[in-house]
């Protein structure tokens, strides 16, 4: 579990759900990485009753925290659980069973159901996937062996990876490009997909199992339109970076939706701008399409995605 200034009550629910399952997995260890919380997590919450190792990682950002977990973990499989994720019954045991049954499986995810602390607006459903919500049916089983990206890529909420692949991923990032992920108020993302693409490039496969379920507690601030508008910009930035990093290595697009014909993109942008005058849904989409259009135009002038992808701030 990687955490930064967590709501303590929600985090305790997450901790309790994990601890209740540790006995189901022989030789399991539980690591919590405090990613520079202020004050430090150990001073904010009574954690001595939990059978866990508490690590400190001063470098901000989820990627740095996960790297600290990977470097300190001793098991063959690592399950990443956010501090607002409540694992369902037998979650850890099912992860072990899945990896034991399939040597080619590299990264595993499941079903993510929201628990909203504040009622989201009626139009919010379009954007649930941006918050790692995956309302997969319980009987779903999907394997992925190649791009492009789809909603059946495992998301970071509760996903599990073989440790040897995670270590190799860190080494690969040092030689290529490190996708930073979220840090503080910066709403860029993509680190989960980056790991998934590395797993595929290594000849392993991804899988999503609907029976593997967890509850994702969503705070009230994350269903606000203003938050989603910032998140839209972060998603564009992340998709462009991942497209740059991986499309050449795979020889095919990773996110075909970021590179439609320019005339199509301009048409979608104009529609979103017009409808945003009275639709909050389209105010969010306006940020998405205008950011992507600006990126495409800059690429047209400069020619190289790396020159413009990093220029977008997710706080725009």
Could you describe the 3D structure shown?
- The chain has 316 residues and is α/β, with parallel strands linked by helices.
- The protein has two domains: 2-223, Spore Coat Polysaccharide Biosynthesis Protein SpsA, Chain A (Alpha-Beta Complex); 249-309.
- It contains ten helices and nine strands.
- The strands form two sheets. Strands 4, 5, 6, 7, 8 and 9 form a six-stranded mixed β-sheet that branches.
- The protein is globular.
- The protein starts with a strand and ends in a 7-residue tail after the last helix.
Primary descriptors:
single chain, 316 residues, alpha/beta, Spore Coat Polysaccharide Biosynthesis Protein SpsA, Chain A, six-stranded mixed β-sheet, three-stranded parallel β-sheet, 9 strands, 16% strand
Number of strand elements: 9
Distance between the termini: 30 Å
Q: What share of the residues lie within helices?
A: 40-55%
- Give, in order, the helices and strands: EHEHEHEEHEEEHHEHHHH
Coarse structural class: alpha/beta
Largest sheet: 6 strands, mixed
Gross geometry: globular
Beta-strand residue percentage: 15-25%
CATH superfamily of the largest domain: Spore Coat Polysaccharide Biosynthesis Protein SpsA, Chain A
The tally of structural domains comes to: 2
Rg (CA only): 20 Å
Question: Would you summarize the structure shown here?
Answer:
By secondary structure, this protein is of the alpha/beta class. It has helices at residues 8-19, 41-44, 62-72, 91-101, 163-175, 191-201, 225-250, 262-275, 280-302, 305-309; strands at 2-3, 31-34, 53-56, 77-79, 85-87, 105-116, 141-144, 160-162, 205-218. The chain has ten helices and nine strands.
């Amino acid at each position: 579990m990687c955490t930064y200034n967590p709501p303590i009550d929600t985090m305790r629910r997450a901790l309790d759900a994990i601890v209740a399952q540790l006995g189901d997995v022989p030789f399991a260890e539980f690591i919590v990485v405090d990613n520079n919380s202020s004050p430090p997590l150990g001073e904010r919450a009574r954690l001595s009753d939990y059978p866990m190792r508490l690590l400190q990682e001063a470098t901000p950002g989820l990627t740095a925290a996960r790297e600290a977990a990977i470097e300190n973990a001793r098991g063959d499989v690592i399950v990443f659980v956010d501090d607002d994720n409540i694992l369902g019954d037998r979650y850890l045991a099912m992860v072990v069973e899945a990896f034991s049954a399939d040597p080619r499986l590299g990264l595993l995810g499941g079903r993510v159901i929201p628990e909203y602390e504040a009622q989201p607006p009626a139009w919010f459903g379009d954007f649930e996937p941006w918050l790692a919500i995956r309302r997969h049916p319980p009987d779903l089983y999907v394997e992925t062996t190649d791009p492009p990206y789809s909603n059946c890529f495992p998301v970071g909420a509760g996903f599990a990876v073989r440790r040897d692949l995670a270590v190799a991923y860190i080494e690969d990032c040092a030689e290529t490009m490190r996708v930073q992920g979220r840090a503080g108020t910066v709403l860029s993302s993509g680190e989960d997909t980056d790991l998934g693409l590395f797993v595929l490039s290594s000849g392993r496969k991804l899988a999503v199992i609907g029976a593997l379920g967890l509850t994702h507690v969503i705070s009230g601030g994350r269903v606000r339109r203003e938050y989603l508008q910032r998140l839209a910009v972060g998603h564009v930035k992340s998709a462009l970076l991942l497209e740059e990093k991986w499309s050449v290595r795979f020889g095919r697009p990773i996110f075909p939706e970021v590179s439609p014909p320019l005339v199509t993109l301009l048409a979608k942008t104009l529609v979103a701008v017009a409808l945003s005058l009275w639709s909050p849904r389209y105010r969010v989409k306006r940020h998405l399409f205008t950011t992507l259009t600006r990126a495409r135009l800059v690429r047209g002038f400069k020619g190289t995605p790396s020159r413009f992808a990093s220029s977008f701030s997710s706080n725009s």
